[in-house]
Amino acid sequence: MVIAILPMHFYGQENLSKPPDDDLGEAEDKFQELFFEALKQKGIENYDKAAEALLQCIEIDKKPAVLYFELGKSYIKLKNFGAAEDALKTAVSKAPDNEWYLDELYGYYISQKELNKALKTVKQLVKYHPDYKEDLANLYVKMKKYDEALELLDELDASFGISVARDRLRNGVYKATGRAKDQIENLESRVDKNPKNEANYLGLIYRYSEQNEKEKAFETAKELLKVKPNSQLVHLALYKFYLDKNNAEEAIKSMKIVVQSDAIKPNAKLKVLSDFVNFVKLNPKYDTDLIEATTLLDGQTDAKTLSDLADYYLHKNDKVKALETFQKALKADSDNFTLLKHVLLLHLDLKQYDAAQVKSDAAILKYPAQPLCYLINGTALNALQNPKKAISSLESGLDWVIENPAMEADFYLQLAKANTLLNNTVKAKTFTDKANTLKNK
C-alpha cells in the first residue's frame, strides 16, 4: 500500500484558507481555527477531540473532502469503524480522483477483512501506481481467484521482470491449486527465454525433483553447468544426483565445492555433509574425503550434523573421535539429553572416570529424574574407589527407575560392587542375586 504524508499546500487546494470577505470572514476564521485544532489534536493522539473539531468544521462547510478524510482516520483510531467507513467513502465521493483517499479506504477494508470492498477499491487505485497491481494480485490470492492472480502476475513479470516476492506468491498459487505442471511449464519457459539466468535453472531443478522427475532434474543441472561452468549453487543438486547414481568421485567433487562456497548458506552445507556422512558409513574407503570436508566446515557445523558424524565414528569403533565430536555437538545444543548421554557413556567406556563423575554430578542437578545419570555417577565413583558416595548416588537413582528391568539390574550390580569394596559381602550377594533374577526374567 502506498503511504503519503499530505503537505500543507494540499489543504489549500480544498480552499481552507481564503482571505476574509465581509460577513464570511468570521466564519472562515473559525473554520480555519477548528481545522488546525483538529490537526493539532491528531498530532498528540487526542483523536476524539480531533473528530469533534472536524465535525464542527463540517457544520460550517460540508464541501471540503479533506475534512471527511481526516475524520475517517480519527474514527479508525477510535475504533468507530462504521463511522470511519462512512467518512472515508464521503471523502472519495467528493474527490474520486484522489489517490490518498482511495488508499486510506482500501487500507481500512483490508484491516477489516472486507475483501470484496477492498478489491473494488484497489481496482480504482491501479491507475496511479504499479505497486497497487501487486496488492491486487495478493488480494486475488486471498480471495482464491487464482486464475486472475496468475494472469496479473504474468502481466507484471512481462512489464517489470521477475521478482522474488511475486514468485513467492505465484508458487503459493501453484501449491494451493496443485498445478505442478503449470509451475514447471512456467519455469521451462523462463529457461528458454533467458538461458543465462541461473535462478531459473535452479528453480526448475527443484520442481523436477519435487515431482520425482529426477532424470529431468539431473539433465537440467548438467545443462546449467554447461551454461555457467563456475556455478556453485548447482552443486547442491549435483552432489545428490551423483550419490544416487553411485558416482562417488563426482559426488565428492561437488560436495567439496559446496562446503567451500561463500555463495551457499551454512545450513545447506550441513545438509550436504550429513548426507555424505551416511554415504561414507556404507563406503568407508572415502573416509579421508569426509575428514577433509569436516575440516573445511570446522566451526560451521550444527549439533545434528556433528551428532551424525559422531555416530559414524562410533560405527567405526573410533570412540575417542566419537567422544570429541559428541562433545562439540553438546556444546552446540547444551539441552540435548541424548548427546549428554553419549558423552557420559563414552567417558566410562574410555575409562575416563574423573570426567564421568564430574559431568554426571552436573547432569544429576540438571536432570534429577533421569536414572541413567545416577547409574553413570555410581559406576564412576566405584571405579574411583569411592563406594560410600557410589551407594548414596545409586540408591537415589534407583527410586527413578520405572519399568526398566535391565537398568534396574545394572543398578543392583553396581550396588553389589560398592558393597564388595566395603567388605559388606552379605549385602553384595543380595544385590547380585536381585540383578540375576531381573536378568533371567
Descriptive overview:
Helix content is 76%, strand content 0%. The protein is built from 25 helices and no strands. The longest helix has 20 residues. It starts with 7 loop residues before the first helix and ends with a helix. The N terminus is likely disordered.
Characteristics of this structure?
about 450 residues, flat, 25 helices, mainly alpha
Average pLDDT figure:
87
Distance between the termini: 73 Å
Count of alpha/pi helices:
25
Shape: flat
Residues in helix, %: over 70%
Concise account of the structure shown:
By secondary structure, the chain is mostly helical. It is built from 25 helices and no strands.
What's the helix and strand layout?
Blueprint: H1 8-12, H2 24-43, H3 47-60, H4 65-77, H5 81-94, H6 99-111, H7 115-125, H8 131-142, H9 146-160, H10 164-177, H11 180-193, H12 198-210, H13 214-227, H14 235-244, H15 248-260, H16 266-282, H17 287-296, H18 303-315, H19 319-332, H20 337-349, H21 353-366, H22 371-383, H23 387-398, H24 405-421, H25 425-439
Helix pairs in contact: 2-3, 3-4, 4-5, 5-6, 6-7, 7-8, 8-9, 8-10, 9-10, 11-12, 12-13, 13-14, 14-15, 14-16, 16-17, 16-18, 18-19, 19-20, 20-21, 20-22, 21-22, 22-23, 22-24, 23-24, 24-25
